[in-house]
Amino acid sequence: MNAAEMGKVAVLYGGWSAEREVSLQSGQAVHAALRRRQVDAHLVDASPATVLGLAGQDFARVFIALHGRGGEDGQVQAALELQALPYTGSGLAASALAMNKAMTKAVWQAAGVPTPPSRLLGADFVAARVVEELGLPLFVKPATEGSSIGMSKVLRAEDLMAAHQEAARFDARVLVERFIDGQEYTAAVLNGRALPLIRVEPRASFYDYHAKYQAEDTAYLCPCGLPPGQERALQALCLQAFDACGASGWGRLDFFLDRQGQPWFLELNTVPGLTSHSLVPKAASAAGIDFDELVWQILQSSTEPRS
């Protein structure tokens, strides 16, 4: 399809999640890229009212640039399907699944995709028992947030309660996960293809919100430095992890390689960031796909309504 055949396109951004500020940046970048490709694109700050009113404004399709709950968890996808509006990215079920880290890990375990041991923390957890089961250090995170919001790295059992309280500010379901001693990588998936892997080297103790969106000293290495055969094998495993969740269109997977070379998958992002600091555009660039072409290819995946 050409730009005219795409029709009037709504770029949903902003929204009401804790990742609103990142989404505003992503949406503005997407809108500018589509305009440069002569697409009749319009920014729409997402709210329940604006999302449910899209069909009445002659929009032909929707580019979802929303991050976090409300936009990435199946809610917006369901509203668009009710209006028979084609949209970018994964469908309702895969979006809801991927937003829930605990459920994603359960699916991966069943599919043979390696993921670090973890458990959900109830309010009455006993720190000593958690440490006995999973060891130290630990990562504690809200089960349904992104961008490392509410996440803590725990080095001592006595700090586990405070980490739980911080994560519980964002979600009643708190996940505690075994720390993997190794190197962090990310893999972008675009229309059935795994793009070149990126090795992430933050200056901070872990890749937190500041390192992702604000710091200028986080290193992103692409080529990632792995032997070509190993990188191809990891890309294939990334596609397996993506498909196991029923994801489609595009997304990003984050994983660690431990010191023995074993991969451990952490999470799947079905609407990753598209900001100046974001990783999918970096991977696409390494594959010879500039930002405008990346956005166009993502939009092309929206050409059919969901059944």
Primary descriptors:
about 300 residues; alpha+beta; six-stranded antiparallel β-sheet; 12 helices; 13 strands
Q: Can you count the helices? A: 12
How does the major sheet shape up? 6 strands, antiparallel
| Oligomer classification | single chain
- Rounded mean pLDDT is 92
Low-confidence stretches: none
What is the H/E string? HEHEHEHHHEHEEHEEEEHEHEEHH
> What is the 3D shape?
globular
Helix content: 25-40%
Going by helix content, strand content and strand pairing, the class is alpha+beta
Calculate Rg over CA atoms. Answer: 19 Å
Number of strands: 13
Distance between the termini: 21 Å
Instruction: Report strand %.
Output: 15-25%
How would you portray this structure in words?
The protein is α+β, with helices and mostly antiparallel strands and 307 residues long. The chain contains twelve helices and 13 strands. The strands form three sheets. Strands 8, 9, 10, 11, 12 and 13 form a six-stranded antiparallel sheet that branches. Strands 4-7-5-6 form a four-stranded antiparallel sheet. The longest helix has 17 residues, at 20-36. The mean pLDDT is 92.
Give a brief description.
Helices cover 36% and strands 22% of the residues. The protein has 307 residues and is α+β, with helices and mostly antiparallel strands.
Secondary structure topology:
Layout: H1 3-6, E1 8-13, H2 20-36, E2 40-45, H3 48-52, E3 61-64, H4 75-82, H5 92-99, H6 101-111, E4 118-121, H7 127-134, E5 138-142, E6 152-154, H8 160-168, E7 174-178, E8 182-190, E9 193-194, E10 198-201, H9 209-213, E11 219-221, H10 228-244, E12 250-258, E13 263-269, H11 279-286, H12 291-300
Parallel strand pairs: 1-2, 1-3
Antiparallel strand pairs: 4-7, 5-6, 5-7, 8-9, 8-10, 8-12, 10-11, 12-13
Helix pairs in contact: 2-12
